[in-house]
Amino acid sequence: MGERSTAFGKELKSLKILTVEDNGSMRLLLRTMLNTFGISTIRQARDGTDGLTELQLYDIDLVISDWEMQPMNGRDFITSVRAIGNEPICFTPIIVLTGHASRSLITEAFEIGATHLLVKPVTPASLLHRIEWVLNDAREFEAAGGIYRQPMIIQEREGLRRTKTVGQSTWALE
């Protein structure tokens, strides 16, 4: 039997969230939105390297991570978090933020283990919707290609209107 995400079944206000974002204004905006939702335990990191350190030092239920960062970008960060042998940190859900969503980026993010994806600019409603989705996500992680990921179906929006299968997994962006 597989593991569920560290956020599954938790109450919104009890979440311990890590934001991994290189832009200071975006970090402040995310913190403000999360505080508005009643979430008070929020850790922050400036890039993937700092994010990995935070995950090792603190008990985190959910990560919200930018995709484009330096020196460690979102792709390398997610791959490091999801690596087999990195239990139990590898079961932490990760919502990816990006300002440049493309079909290939979305597919890649889910293939390497992203739990969900949000396109910037982020609204409070869209962020809350994604977080609540993660809290109710009962899918179990499975090992595939040296990483853990959850089965998914990508339902592409905004003119793409197709469902793509990622491997033998199923994802829903809604």
Descriptive report:
34% of the residues are buried. Helix content is 30%, strand content 21%. Mean pLDDT is 88; it is low at 156-174. The chain has one domain: Response regulator (Rossmann fold, 3-Layer(aba) Sandwich). The chain has 174 residues and is α/β, with parallel strands linked by helices. The chain contains 5 helices and 9 strands; from the N terminus they run βαβαβαβαβαββββ. The strands form 3 sheets. A 5-stranded parallel beta sheet has the order 2-1-3-4-5, with helices on both faces. A two-stranded antiparallel ribbon has the order 6-7. Strands 8-9 form a two-stranded antiparallel sheet. α2 runs parallel beside α3. The two termini are 26 Å apart.
Properties at a glance:
about 170 residues, alpha/beta, Rossmann fold, five-stranded parallel sheet, two-stranded antiparallel ribbon, 9 strands, about 20% strand, globular, disordered C terminus
